[in-house]
Amino acid sequence: MGDRGTTNHSEMTDFILVGFRVHPELHILLFLLFLLIYTMILIGNVGMMVIIMTDPRLNTPMYFFLGNLSFIDLFYSSVIAPKAMINFWSESKSISFAGCVTQFFLFALFIVTEGFLLAVMAYDHFIAICNPLLYSIQMSARVCVQLVAGSYFCGCISSVLQTSMTFTLSFCASRTIDHFYCDDRPLQKISCSHLYIHKLVSFFLCSIIILPTIIVVIVSYMYIVSTVLKIPSTEGQKKAFSTCSSHLGVVSVLYGAVFFMYLTPDTFPELSKVASLCYTLLTPMVNPLIYSLRNKDVKEALRKSLEKRYFNSVFTVMKSKVLGIITTWGSN
């Protein structure tokens, strides 16, 4: 790679992902932990998408958004987890420059899209509870598709800007990224470029992404709480709050982890990695659990799906046994 004092991004061929600074003996344990979490992510989110697509009772805007949330969780965790698990066994722990750019771009795309989608879901709850008579008009299939497409569009624009801005920096200090994936703050640390403009633009991007989405969520729930408290029956209030509690749980977990990571001082890089782990892997793992455990419709659809599979498998076994007996009798 030549002299590190003069190496820039155009000459960079690869980076090294340090990962977690632990004893080598613990790498197996971390690998198994990552494998378990990623397996649960795959099962939970794929299962959620299958249930939503196959059960006609879940053909509503809320579950359309939830299906997209599961899709996003599945893919942005898949951008991080496989490479991190490979590096637990790798001596070099390297990632190519193109691979780092791709990982950075895709992760930024999906995480920003999720932020906007959670705001859309809060708006959906607001319309359902505060304007139920107009719900079918205001949340038509066309509007739902446009809202989801808009979330992906905002995620894409933000990701293009963040990626192009980050990877036009010069990386002459080192090629060692003190993290388990390619993220903005660790990449800034190994850059020898002047970072004032970069940090200013990054702060501006984060502000126009995080503030509007949080404001939409907060304002929506202020109206929701005000409306729910006016419902005369306790049962009606419980049902309304139960509808929103799952979404609030997901929003709290995601934004709590993001704020914790970015408010963690640079002097504690391992703590920052743990916070990153919370929203890169733990959030996609718990989201399906939160919605399946707190949502009566999802639990009922899951129960019927399992019963159908069980009876189909029993019927198949019985059918094969009967056919075997008939064949035996015929040969005799």
TrEMBL record:
Q: Which organism was this protein described from?
A: Muntiacus reevesi
Q: Which PANTHER family match?
A: OLFACTORY RECEPTOR (PTHR48018)
Please give the GO cellular component terms listed in this UniProt entry: plasma membrane
Tell me where the transmembrane regions lie: 28-51, 63-81, 101-123, 143-161, 200-224, 244-262, 274-293
Where is this protein found? Answer: Cell membrane
UniProt cross-references to InterPro entries, sorted A to Z = GPCR_Rhodpsn, GPCR_Rhodpsn_7TM, Olfact_rcpt
Q: Taking the first listed entry, what is the main subcellular location of this protein, grouped into a coarse class?
A: membrane
The record ties this protein, via Pfam families, to: 7tm_4 (PF13853)
Care to name a GO molecular-function term for this sequence? Answer: olfactory receptor activity
Q: What is this protein called?
A: G-protein coupled receptors family 1 profile domain-containing protein
Keywords associated with the record: Cell membrane, G-protein coupled receptor, Membrane, Olfaction, Receptor, Sensory transduction, Transducer, Transmembrane, Transmembrane helix
All copies of the G-protein coupled receptors family 1 profile domain together span 44-291
